[in-house]
Design goal:
The protein is mainly β. Helices cover 9% and strands 54% of the residues. It has a 22-stranded antiparallel beta barrel. Strands 3-9-10-7-8 form a 5-stranded mixed beta sheet.
């Protein structure tokens, strides 16, 4: 709590400093991009080296900071909803990603990997990928969405895709301070973001802050209106990122960093799923990551990339274990509320080398060790608050004792080469071996990848990609299932790692004004591991058989000039289980269109319009009617009032569309109507 208050105070202090600054200062625009740079974005995530997006051995959509700010989307989940192959949905108050027809069927969002400057930041206990306001992307130079498995380079959790965040940096010595403050009608939302950067001959540092708070919407949840079933989607989030890197002396390349993320919010519709929610139901996620990073080039052809990090994850919740029926019949006896707190410590180290002996050959090899354990009482606890005056706080067994150490040992290698076939033939071969071991489970998995990019001419490329990925069970899955076994015995099955294999084919086109990609994919998932509820226990299970998913994605970006650009994309995905039943709640057809224009005379005004359309959603029960989709329009205006001061107006869902996202095939989760959000930004 002290850290949260300090972060909020620092955000406000930086804003006040900015407001008092002289407007006569020259503007330092980190977001400026030429037309060529806008259409020839370089990405890193597909092969851990910078390359043009059309040449990369992966299917990637990238958003530079210029577009992030012009469209006014400052969180990963907002960008995901305009990205082909991605969508976000709400479950129990948490944003979870769907990618190419598949999703994590729980509220942990643990099948994607999020990286900040190359550091994995998923939650230590649940492997939960942070994608909401606990990770505001105002500090990002670029955000990359890679679709498809990436375990060959990144290991477990890089299952359906990865989100790579490249922070802003200063090109020359100096300093920069930038802030943004927002307030809006969307449940009285408030947001503050700030970046402070400095660079000199010795080193460079950055402080990035974010704070977000909103009230609960209290809309009716579910298929019937009930005062016992309101939507508690309140949120209170804090973000802090400190970094410093030395650029001189014998310690050149050594960096220190700290990442802190906290998100507290209501449980939305709650997992009792029986028309009962309560204002006191909530959950808190905290991630605290101090790390040491070392990156250095030795000559022109050899470099080292390494880090050592500690990741402490805290998950704590509080809820009323009632359904509407049991609440109405409650006789004043038994459990009233349940509360838990789970604390997990994670230590991870990585050493990676890169060797470029020729301009046509790149070799990467690395070793990765990840160990984590869950602390027992008093650091972790599980209480049922009972009406019995003799035993009001019985301590449960699930989190009483510390878990055994769970470790993953990994080695990986990748070779990228180029042949003079047509314009060029680019081939990437890689593999990773993961060995997971604990007292409960051991697994070993080889995750290979093959990527072929044929450059036909200056404009057209053809891509063929194949790869496998792994997601091993984490401490949360083990802990919940072990506790359930104590109650239900052999009814709870042992869990194992899930794997996915994908085959992708793509055609890209790029010229001075247009960048386009057309992709076909086919995925096979074995032993899909997801959360579910068994009687009175929350557990994880592996599905039987293979889940098959396939679809197409098309996206184009157009730039008439540096002041006028727009994008359009379309996605279609279908996934069926081993019994040929469709997976629930998957968008069938999805399309997005965005238009951005900057007026420079007689005054400065940037305006953007984004349309998001979903046709309908898939259901597993053919007797039910398909949940309907939605169409929403977002409008964003920003204007430079002076060289450093900017005003912004966001109008979300300008058509005031009333719709609910589906859950288990039924329209359940209410989405916000029209809202106005006002903002001020300053750069010094």
């Amino acid at each position: 709590m002290k850290l949260k208050k300090s972060a909020v105070g620092l955000c406000i202090a930086l804003s006040i400093i900015s407001a008092k600054a002289s407007f006569a200062e020259n503007e330092k625009d980190l977001n400026s991009l030429s037309l060529e740079e806008l259409l020839n974005i370089e990405v890193y995530s597909a092969s851990k080296k910078l390359e043009k997006i059309q040449d990369s051995p992966g299917i990637i959509t990238a958003y530079p900071s210029k577009l992030i700010e012009e469209y006014g989307y400052y969180s990963i989940d907002q960008l995901a909803n305009i990205t082909p192959g991605y969508s976000s949905y709400l479950k129990y108050g948490e944003k979870v990603f769907e990618t190419r027809g598949q999703k994590a069927d729980s509220f942990n969002n643990n099948k994607h990997l999020t990286l900040i400057d190359g550091i994995p930041v998923n939650h230590a206990r649940a492997f939960k990928s942070p994608v909401e306001e606990e990770l505001p992307i105002f500090f990002a130079k670029q955000v990359e969405f890679l679709r498809g498995p990436a375990s060959a380079l990144y290991g477990t959790s890089a299952f359906y895709g990865i989100i790579n965040i490249v922070p802003k940096t200063l090109k020359e010595n100096g300093s920069l301070l930038e802030t943004k403050l927002f307030g809006g009608t969307n449940d009285f939302s408030k947001k503050a973001m700030a970046n402070a950067m400095v660079k000199n001959d010795i080193g460079e540092g950055r402080v990035s802050l974010g704070y977000y708070k909103k009230d609960a919407s209290r809309s009716f949840v579910g298929t019937k209106d009930s005062s016992n079933n309101l939507f508690w989607d309140d949120q209170d989030s804090v973000f802090l990122n400190l970094t410093y890197k030395l650029n001189t002396t014998f310690l050149d390349g050594l960096g220190l960093g700290l990442i802190y993320m906290s998100k507290n919010g209501g449980l939305g519709e709650h997992w009792m799923e029986s028309a009962f929610t309560h204002q006191l139901n909530d959950i808190t996620w905290e991630t605290f990551i101090p790390y040491v990073k070392y990156q250095k080039s030795f000559g022109d052809s050899f470099s080292v990339n390494s880090y050592l990090k500690f990741n402490q994850g805290i998950e704590k919740g509080w809820w009323a274990p009632f359904t509407e029926e049991s609440y109405q019949k409650w006789d004043g006896k038994g459990n009233i509320f349940s509360a838990y707190e789970a604390k997990v410590d994670n230590f991870e180290g990585l050493v990676e080398t890169k060797y470029d002996p020729f301009d046509w050959l790149n070799i990467i090899a690395g070793v990765n060790i990840d160990s984590r354990y869950q602390k027992g009482a008093p650091d972790s606890y599980d209480y049922n608050i009972n009406s019995d005056p003799k035993i009001p706080y019985p301590l449960g067994d699930e989190l009483k004792t510390a878990s055994s150490l769970f470790s993953i040992y990994s080695v990986y290698s990748q070779v990228s080469t180029k042949f003079p076939v047509l314009r060029d033939l680019l081939i990437t071969l890689g593999a990773r071996g993961d060995y997971g071991t604990s007292s409960i489970l051991q697994y070993q998995q080889i995750s290979p990848r093959v990527a072929v990019v044929q450059k036909l001419n200056d404009n057209f490329n053809v891509k063929f990609l194949w790869g496998n990925a792994l997601r091993g069970p984490g401490l949360k899955e083990f802990g919940l299932n072990t506790a359930a076994k104590q109650k239900y015995g052999a009814e709870i099955k042992d869990i194992k790692a899930e794997t996915i294999s994908t085959l992708e084919g793509g055609l890209t086109f790029n010229n001075d004004n247009v960048s386009s990609t057309l992709t076909y994919f086919n995925n096979s998932t074995l032993n899909a591991l997801d959360g579910t509820r068994y009687k009175e226990a929350n557990i994880f299970i592996n599905s039987d058989g293979v889940i098959q998913a396939s679809g197409v994605e098309a996206e184009s970006s157009f730039a008439i000039n540096k002041d006028f650009n727009f994008f359009a994309n379309y996605s279609f995905a279908q996934a069926v289980d081993s019994k040929s039943k469709e997976l629930n709640d998957i968008p069938i057809h999805k399309a997005n269109l965005g238009i951005n224009y900057t007026l420079n005379f007689p005054f400065n005004l940037n305006s953007s319009l984004v349309g998001k359309w979903i046709s309908d959603y898939r259901i597993s029960d053919p007797k039910l009617t398909r949940p309907t989709g939605n169409l929403t329009l977002d409008l964003n205006f920003s204007s430079k009032l002076t060289s450093g001061l900017t005003a912004e107006l966001q109008i979300r869902n300008i058509l005031d569309s009333k719709y609910k996202l589906p859950k288990n095939g039924l329209q359940d989760i209410p989405m916000p109507g029209r809202s106005l959000i006002f903002g001020l930004g300053y750069q010094l």
